[in-house]
């Protein structure tokens, strides 16, 4: 989940430039945490009634295909939300690479001597830690406010000077008057 930590730092920098309002981005972090909470309920549901033991290779054989599918769907949903959160980082988003999903899915093998129940307990503990971290990130992002623009000093309006009362129109230059008279004479129809 380092990607989300890096995204928060990049968002903080963008907010310093006045480009990001943290309250809007915090909602995305809350949605990611909600996916994590749902995943924790699925893991807890398995631990409450573990059922028959599975094989010694995969967690899926212990928790069942339906729970694994639900966890996978939550992982996909969370990954989309992570990309949205990273997009808020602006230009820095292109440097963020999804390292791991914030939702613990069931597609990993069991360690030597580990049972599915033990793995589920470890996954639940990790999911709860992820959820706590996501809530903290949401709080951090929510606290980010765009940088206030420096107040610009308003210049007093310039007073218009009244035109002098004795101002007279300048007469047109003599050459321009003669030229205009010649043009008019050429265009005028001749009388017979």
Write up this protein:
This protein has 192 residues and is mainly alpha-helical. The protein has one domain. Helices cover 57% and strands 0% of the residues. The protein is built from 6 helices and no strands. The protein has helices at residues 2-16, 22-48, 60-63, 65-87, 116-142, 174-187. Helix 1 (2-16) runs parallel beside helix 5 (116-142) and helix 2 runs antiparallel to helix 5. The relative contact order is 0.18.
- SSE string, helix = H, strand = E? HHHHHH
Kindly name the structural category: mainly alpha
Which bin fits the share of residues in helices? 55-70%
Count of the domains? 1
Record field, number of beta strands: 0
Specify the overall morphology: rod-shaped
Describe the main β-sheet briefly: none
Amino- and carboxy-terminal Cα gap: 101 Å
Residue fraction in strands: under 5%
Overall pLDDT score? 80
Annotate the secondary structure layout.
Blueprint: H1 2-16, H2 22-48, H3 60-63, H4 65-87, H5 116-142, H6 174-187
Helix pairs in contact: 1-4, 1-5, 2-4, 2-5
Write a concise keyword list for the protein shown above.
192 residues, mainly alpha, 0% strand
Describe the structure concisely.
With 192 residues, this protein is mostly helical. Helices cover 57% and strands 0% of the residues.
């Amino acid at each position: 989940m380092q990607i989300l930590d890096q995204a928060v730092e990049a968002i903080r920098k963008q907010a310093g430039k006045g480009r990001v309002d943290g309250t809007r981005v915090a909602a995305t972090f809350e949605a990611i945490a909600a996916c994590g909470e749902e995943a924790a309920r699925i893991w807890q549901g398995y631990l409450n009634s573990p059922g028959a033991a599975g094989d010694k290779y995969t967690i899926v054989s212990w928790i069942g295909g339906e729970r694994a599918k639900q966890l996978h769907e939550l992982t996909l949903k969370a990954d989309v939300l992570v990309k949205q959160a990273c997009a808020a980082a602006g230009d820095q988003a292109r440097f963020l690479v999804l390292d791991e999903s914030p939702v613990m899915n069931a597609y990993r093998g069991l360690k030597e001597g580990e049972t599915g129940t033990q793995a589920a307990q470890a996954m639940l503990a990790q999911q709860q830690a992820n959820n706590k971290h996501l809530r903290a990130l949401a709080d951090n992002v929510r606290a980010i406010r765009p940088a206030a623009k420096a107040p610009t000093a308003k210049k007093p309006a310039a007073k218009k000077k009244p035109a002098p009362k004795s101002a007279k129109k300048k007469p047109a230059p003599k050459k321009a008057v003669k030229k205009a008279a010649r043009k008019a004479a050429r265009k005028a129809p001749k009388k017979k």
